[in-house]
Amino acid sequence: MPDAVEEYFDGKPASLSIFRAIADVIDGYGTSAMTVGSQISFGRERKFAWFWLYNVTKKNPDGVPHLMLAIDHAVDNEHVRNVE
């Protein structure tokens, strides 16, 4: 895992653990490029997954992980907040 990922989750080990599990699943589908900035994204020819920490205070994210996926079908699941 790149140092930038470790820095992104500094002080938030539970969120890092969740991210690692998600990254492992994504890696299981094949090679993708990961970029780390204000969020962490994965892509091949185009980006398809974004992971970030929810920022309530607008200063320091509290560690609540959010995941956004670009998929080709609707998902009806109580754990999915929004489908567009």
Topology:
Elements: H1 3-8, H2 13-28, E1 33-36, E2 40-43, E3 47-53, E4 65-69
Antiparallel strand pairs: 1-2, 2-3, 3-4
Radius of gyration (Å):
13 Å
| Residue share in helix | 25-40%
Taking strands numbered 1, 2, ... along the chain, how are they ordered across the largest sheet? Answer: 1-2-3-4
User: What is the domain tally?
Assistant: 1
- Alpha-carbon distance between the termini? 31 Å
Structural class: alpha+beta
Q: Overall 3D geometry?
A: globular
- Number-wise, the strands total 4
**What is the helix/strand order?**
HHEEEE
Task: Provide a descriptive summary of the structure in words.
- The protein has two helices and four strands, in the order ααββββ.
- The protein is α+β, with helices and mostly antiparallel strands and 84 residues long.
- It has one domain.
- It has a four-stranded antiparallel sheet with strand order 1-2-3-4.
Q: Any descriptors?
A:
84 residues; 4 strands; alpha+beta; 26% helix; 2 helices; four-stranded antiparallel β-sheet
